[in-house]
Design goal:
Layout lengths: L6 H29 L3 E4 L4 E3 L9 H22 L5 H13 L2 H9 L3 H10 L6 H26 L5 H29 L6 E3 L2 E2 H16 L9 H20 L1
Helix pairs in contact: 1-2, 1-3, 1-8, 2-3, 2-5, 2-6, 4-6, 5-6
Keywords: Membrane, Transmembrane, Transmembrane helix
Length: 247
C-alpha cells in the first residue's frame, strides 16, 4: 500500500476525524444517560455526569463506552488493510487513523484517558492500583499498537515510519488547535451553549451535523489515500478510450 496525500483527501480526512471524535463522546453520553439518567456540562473533549447518578456503581461503563467504540473502529479499519481492493484499503487506513490510535496510548502513558479513569473508578483505594494501571496501559498498547504495526507493515512509501508518525501526531495537533482551543473557546463564550440532547450544546450538534453532511458529500475522496485507488479511475478511463480506438 503506497500512500498519496492530496488537499482533497486531507480535507475529507479532517471531517472524518471530527465526526468520529464526536461519536466517541456520544458513546460516553449515551451510556451515561442509561446509567445515571442525568447529564452535566460538556465541551468538545470533556463531559461530566449530572448532580445525581441513579447507578453510581456502574459509572465505569460510561468511561468504557467511548474507548470500546474507538477500538472497534480502529480494528475494523486495520482488518481492511489486508484487502486486495485498494479502495477498501484506503478506507480502512482512514478509519483506523480517524479514531486516534496513538492518542489513546499517549494519554494512557501520561496517566490520563478513559482507560485509566476506569481503573481509578473500580479500584480507587486498592494497594495494587499501580499494577492495575500498568496492566491497563499494556492492554491499551495492544489494542492501539497492533493496528498501528499492521499499518506500518503495509506501507510501501520510502521512510514509512515518517508517514506513520505524521498520521499519529497530525490529527492530535489538529484537534488540539481546532477543537480544544478554538471551538471550546467559542463554546465558553456562550455561543449556542444551551444543551439540546444528551447534555450536548447546540453548537456541538450543529458543528457535527455540518461535518457529517460534508463527509457524506465528499466521501468518495476518503479511500484515495491509497495511490492505487487514486489512479484506478484514470486507468479505467484509459482502457475505455483505448477500446474505442481499437474498435
Amino acid at each position: 500500500m503506497t500512500l498519496r496525500l492530496t488537499a482533497r483527501y486531507l480535507f475529507v480526512f479532517a471531517l472524518a476525524l471530527l465526526v468520529f471524535t464526536e461519536l466517541h463522546e456520544l458513546a460516553h453520553l449515551s451510556v451515561l444517560g442509561l446509567v445515571c439518567g442525568s447529564f452535566g456540562p460538556r465541551d468538545f473533549n470533556q463531559w461530566q455526569s449530572g448532580p445525581a447518578c441513579a447507578h453510581p456503581a456502574l459509572g465505569f461503563l460510561t468511561s468504557a463506552a467511548g474507548p470500546l467504540f474507538s477500538y472497534l473502529m480502529m480494528w475494523l479499519g486495520a482488518t481492511a488493510l489486508t484487502s486486495p481492493d485498494p479502495k477498501r484499503r484506503g478506507l480502512g487506513f482512514s478509519l483506523l487513523f480517524a479514531n486516534l490510535p496513538f492518542a489513546r496510548l499517549f494519554t494512557a502513558l501520561l496517566g490520563g484517558g478513559d482507560e485509566l479513569t476506569i481503573i481509578r473508578t473500580l479500584w480507587p483505594d486498592s494497594p495494587q492500583l499501580i499494577l492495575y494501571k500498568a496492566l491497563m496501559i499494556l492492554l491499551v498498547a495492544a489494542l492501539s499498537g497492533l493496528p498501528l504495526w499492521w499499518a506500518y507493515r503495509r506501507l510501501r512509501n520510502p521512510r514509512p515510519w515518517l508517514w506513520l508518525l505524521g498520521f499519529a501526531l497530525g490529527p492530535m495537533l489538529f484537534e488540539f488547535g481546532y477543537l480544544f482551543r478554538l471551538l471550546n473557546g467559542v463554546l465558553k463564550a456562550g455561543v449556542l451553549a444551551q444543551p439540546w440532547a444528551l447534555g450536548t450544546p447546540a453548537f456541538i450538534w450543529l458543528h457535527t451535523a455540518l461535518c457529517a453532511a460534508l463527509l457524506l458529500t465528499f466521501r468518495r475522496y476518503l479511500p484515495l489515500i491509497d495511490a492505487e485507488a487514486a489512479s484506478a479511475p484514470r486507468d479505467v478511463t484509459r482502457q475505455v478510450v483505448a477500446s474505442g480506438v481499437v474498435g
